[in-house]
Amino acid sequence: MHKIFLIIPSLHRGGAERVVSIIANNLDHTLFDITLVLLEKRGSYLKDLRDDIKIVDLKQSRVSRSIGSLIKLINTHKPDIVFSTLGHLNLLLMMFKIFMPRDVRFVAREASIPSILNKNERYPTIFNALYKRLYPKFDRVVCQSRYMMQDLHENFSIQKNLMRVINNPIDFDNIELKLSGQKSSLTRDMKNIVAVGSLESVKGYDLLIEAIALSRRDDIRLFIIGEGSKQEELLALIDNLKLQSRVKLLGFKDNPYPYMRDADLMVLSSKFEGFPNTVLESMACGTAVVAFKSPGGIEEIVIEAENGWFVEPYSVSKLRDAIDLHVDHQIDADQIRASVFQRYNLEFIIKEYETMFEEVLSEIA
């Protein structure tokens, strides 16, 4: 049995965290001995883990302070594979790889679009250089989308034979379980738009709220599920535009799926996304999506008029027009679910991970 360490800072309310929890739960436990290594044991996805998953809590609140504990842990237990996700953690592991056993294989899962994300770092040039120097040291790099692979190849000179595109999985059984017998607070007297994600600049919620303000219809309500640093700014914008009765910030929801199912439309207004889980999950709930055609994997998910529609990026007026038009378009819910089940069902994606891990192990000299 091959020993795998899955390393992530925490399981706190993010797309990468959700994916890692799904991988931990569903890898074949007769083939792989799974240990989940958390820099800090916290997060809403902890409760979703199988009881038999081993968890190591390093009790570190910052990635930069965790490297000593990680080196000691890896040297002590000598896993066959270390699988990590999120850029800062990936880079840190490769910086100190020389202090860890040579026969340990390292696999990184990239969680965003580095050429865009690094622009927001304090020292973008340094981070770009670190990606170019350190990512080729991994035995594999998992990309969520073809766009992400191309970004790493073109901007950081990472060879394509080092990378594998493995999309994010949809746990249909878990979604069905959380939908069963559950109701949202949405009512049918209005047209309901839902958006789900952290209240941060990258999500473009200011543009979405402005689009609602420009709407030519008075029967549309917007519900945003999530929490984050931009909450007060968004509340001020809602007040300034006098949208208090039409736009609601609902905060974080452990179970957002009833809202996705009951919505007339899901909107993704992000400026960029690696491979948006909320779009996959909305479609798994049978609800179509209107999305900016922004950088990232969104173009690989949405099939025009089959499970959603695209909008010219960052145009508030075009987003308004798309919402006004498509909120009345009723695409068959089963058709929407089928469009993503075929490509992203859990069994298929987990098999992709297992095959990739076996491939890496077979290359050990």
Structure at a glance:
The chain is of the alpha/beta class and 365 residues long. It is built from 14 helices and 13 strands. It has helices at 15-26, 67-77, 87-95, 114-117, 124-134, 146-156, 172-179, 205-214, 231-240, 257-262, 277-284, 316-326, 333-344, 346-362, and strands spanning 2-8, 32-38, 54-57, 81-85, 105-109, 140-143, 163-165, 191-196, 220-225, 247-251, 265-268, 289-292, 308-311.
Question: Would you write up a description of this structure?
Answer:
The chain has 365 residues and is an alpha/beta fold. It folds into two domains: 2-169 and 345-362, Rossmann fold, CATH 3.40.50.2000; 172-344, Glycogen Phosphorylase B (Rossmann fold, 3-Layer(aba) Sandwich), CATH 3.40.50. It is built from 14 helices and 13 strands. It has helices spanning 15-26, 67-77, 87-95, 114-117, 124-134, 146-156, 172-179, 205-214, 231-240, 257-262, 277-284, 316-326, 333-344, 346-362, and strands at 2-8, 32-38, 54-57, 81-85, 105-109, 140-143, 163-165, 191-196, 220-225, 247-251, 265-268, 289-292, 308-311. The strands form two sheets. It has a seven-stranded parallel β-sheet with strand order 3-2-1-4-5-6-7, sandwiched between helices. A six-stranded parallel β-sheet has the order 10-9-8-11-12-13, with helices on both faces. Helix 8 crosses helix 12 (316-326). The mean pLDDT is 96.
